[in-house]
């Protein structure tokens, strides 16, 4: 459980920093009058959808970190046999990086009012995300064919579980990406679409980051780090 | 001084929202069924939660029948008894209390109290309710599937939860997990709304430190729930995979019905960590909205500003943060490393400090107040008493050496029913008596309300106070029958019968309340917009019940905090939050 505690400590620092900007030491019973007289405590200047995505990313990160906590606890039992990571995963990782780059491209294009560039970026990002998902399914199939079934070892179970949860999050993102692309396709004003494109790009970068962390975990690169974390609290 | 130009200041919402931005219901279906209006969603959440809560109430009667008069009722067997326990606990904690406080009160009160027209993502808010309803239906369906609902206990500990021998092993446990997963997905959608609405949609002048404590309580509880429910999600998914695909996340190797099972190596302790990482914050997810609401009830009905508002806010935030590092005090008997117990006992006892600050502040708010013993006030007072009682036994159980002998006895049952059963329900009932006039435009009947309060309050004490004694005797919880154990005197059996009679009486007396709700809807005295002469924004709406978009053409502007009651020099004993300073009438001769 040390991973989740560390993660929550980071969240607590962010929340504490934000709260410290909110004049929580004000004495509201003395402050009668309009807001102009009392600075601070206004809503953030970000649009609500962006704040909403930020909160959602915190929740999704909590979910992944909890899976990682469970992974590191279960890993220490003797029956754990790491499975060979299919090489295909490296190709998939490359495709997911491309997907993220394409959406960043789209976002940059949106800021320059380049409708064509936005559309190309969205389509390229969506297509490469679909290819990534197909590649993940293919990796599952290869592992299954090689005899690494979901229930034959906890390492396998976690491999399938973590990739599935990540894939489902990406699928959810594809729904949002599809809606954004459809709106662009129907010729929406680019100024109205800038936020949607930005949010898609942020979500994609987040999922790329999650994937890289999961990949590190599944390939065993982060074993030393996991061990350090485990020893921290025991 | 009157018209300060706010337009164009970043972060301050404009006074008028263009009409297209508001969601408009176009038909009966989208107005009352698939509505995106937070007020309708709130009522849908509340009615669904109450309906499934009544099922859980009936289950508790059945359990009490068996405990009070063992062997008398042939239609209750040991398996069913375990199923009743499980479903009663799960429904009451998650599907009733969590859904009612956050989905019900949160949806109704947050937009009104912060001066918003609606939640920021109305469509997602609507989805949240429908996913919640689906979760409730999946849960309720387990009563009708082969094998019935799961009897694993509400904590669903593996390995027993998914092994044969536990009732509901076929379908019950699978549907329970599915229902929990759905509930968490639905809650996350709603929770995003509650948090972002408080952050982004506050009206002009509504700084965080001018928020009513109700909003602070619900807001903090929602943040906690968003971070704690993923742990239950992870545990549910992994347990479901253990059951369905034969993985061994939690399942150790064991012999089941004489044969070696397919499982091996899994860690039941891992499940307990995940479950209680959710389970302990859950206690405060239910308690913090109750703390917030009760603060507002006491202040309004004692006509006095809340004592130590800042301290109350800080205490809410501190309790929220601390509640994430106490979970293992539910696991003292799990065989964990002893020094862990020492750490968790310390954090558990530290949480008593902000909680005690809140209790002192409520009492100090009452001190020399102009106390109106209305029904909401009675329930608020009932809450303080039961909560202190349950909190004190919590200090007992938080200590490892006291907890170990009391673990799994009726003492624990008495403790958590007092602290997170009766106490929050007192607040729920008080809050319904308080806000019913705003929701319907009519008052609930006072006489029936007072009868309801006294029966519920005294009854709850008669039920749960003797249970502490049973627990100290060593009477175990979760047992279908006590049998002829030497350490259980016959007086314990008659006490059990007594508790059962009272429980049934109190349970039936809730029908008076349901009758009152229905009768007052049509025949109740008209309340007007602000019957309690309260300061917060929801009482200042142009229409009662609040119309579509909550406010008229312009959003309210907030000039003061939420607790300007009995202000010296003011003519009225309350000043609404949206009343400008120059509009306050002063007593003749008082310095302005």
Descriptive notes:
The complex is a heterodimer of chains A (234) and B (592). Chain A is mainly α and 234 residues long. Chain A has helices spanning 2-20, 48-75, 88-111, 115-145, 154-185, 190-219, 223-233. Chain A has one domain: Four Helix Bundle (Hemerythrin (Met), subunit A), CATH 1.20.120. Chain A contains 7 helices and no strands. Chain A starts with a helix and ends with a helix. Chain B is mainly alpha-helical and 592 residues long. Chain B has helices at 28-33, 38-68, 78-114, 122-141, 172-200, 213-245, 268-301, 309-322, 338-366, 375-398, 400-406, 410-440, 446-473, 490-523; strands spanning 255-256, 259-260. Chain B has a two-stranded antiparallel ribbon. In chain B, helix 3 (78-114) packs across helix 7 (268-301).
Set down the secondary structure blueprint.
The complex is a heterodimer of chains A (234) and B (592).
Chain A (H helix, E strand, L loop, with lengths): L1 H19 L27 H28 L12 H24 L3 H31 L8 H32 L4 H30 L3 H11 L1
Helix pairs in contact in A: 1-2, 2-5, 2-6, 3-4, 3-6, 4-5, 5-6
Chain B lengths: L27 H6 L4 H31 L9 H37 L7 H20 L30 H29 L12 H33 L9 E2 L2 E2 L7 H34 L7 H14 L15 H29 L8 H24 L1 H7 L3 H31 L5 H28 L16 H34 L69
Antiparallel strand pairs in B: 1-2
Helix pairs in contact in B: 2-3, 2-4, 2-14, 3-5, 3-6, 3-7, 3-12, 4-5, 5-6, 6-7, 6-8, 7-9, 7-10, 7-12, 8-9, 9-10, 10-12, 10-13, 12-13, 13-14
